[in-house]
Amino acid sequence: MNKTTEQPILSVRRLKQYFSSGFGKQKMVVKAVDDVSFDIYKGEVFGLVGESGCGKTTTGRSIIKLYEPTDGEVFFMGTRISAGTQSLKESIKTMRREAHKQLAELTLQEKKSIEEAQGNEAKIDAIKKDFEAQKEEVTKDRDALIKNIKRDIPNRKEDTGKPNKELMKRMQMIFQDPIASLNPRMTVKEIIAEGLRIAGEKKDKEINIQVNRVLETVGLLPEHASRYPHEFSGGQRQRIGIARALVVRPEFIIADEPISALDVSIQAQVINLLNDLRQEFGITIMFIAHDLSVVKYFSDRIGVMYYGKLVELASKDELFKNPLHPYTKSLLSAVPLPDPDYEKGRKRIKYDPTMHDYSKELPDLHEVKPGHFIYANTMELEEYKKVLK
Prior knowledge:
4-stranded antiparallel sheet; 13 helices; alpha/beta; 8-stranded mixed sheet
């Protein structure tokens, strides 16, 4: 899924995040993120869009390890920082089922061969020895494979269980709700300085210098450091959240709908601020949002999510020029334009997921053209290729 030959700063591979609710027969599993894969490259803004509840925020939280993933792997700057073990456990179950099936078949064959050799004790002994050796081989192979998989389960937990502070401080998150994400009992200085203290900075003088510097960077004043979150407007609180993320000088930021709760004029200020920070510090951003017009303006590449699945991924120009997946077309049809004549004739496209027939072949993410990925089975993929031609 490489955009170029360069190494991605973040790689997400087959990420799954499932949540369970209820008990016994009432137990339900919600697949918030289901088998999602993508790469993000240094210096770019990767937009992730979709309707409410599609799994965008859960994807971001799983990447930064606020949630432990059910399955899949996340690599940051070449190091695996998060990994689930469900697929390994499922592999063990599958191997045991297959081995049990093979042993049952061998037992039936052995019984049939013994019946055919009735009266010939020497032949019966030879048959028993032969089938005993075959059963032993099946059991031996199964146990060896399961042992290797079981060895990898603690390896994954060991690799990702203890966070590497030096690595993880290079990744930060701006949360969606600027009110809920700031501790009301802490001053702005304490909120921003917390990341520095966790990273190991102990000198108060240095902490004050860095806090004041980052406040000025996001358009606030050093005297704001002594105030509490409730004393600020929504836009200012979001700037405090951005300052908290920036103070440890990250290389990658997950911006989880940082403008959704703000007025339009404040949204523009925050977007322009993130753009300036990106250009000044070379920060890579994963931008989660609903507003496709903002995502088009701010992002380099865009991923579209629906019900936990990544259904389409392409550059912003390619996605808006050649949307292929019906859900992407539905989203784009909902984007209003400041043109009264266009708005009078704008038609909403309704997406019906039952239009897909996956009874014969399950879909996967395929590259329909360089850099343009689509979630489809083989039959749909051929249709999408025809549309592009």
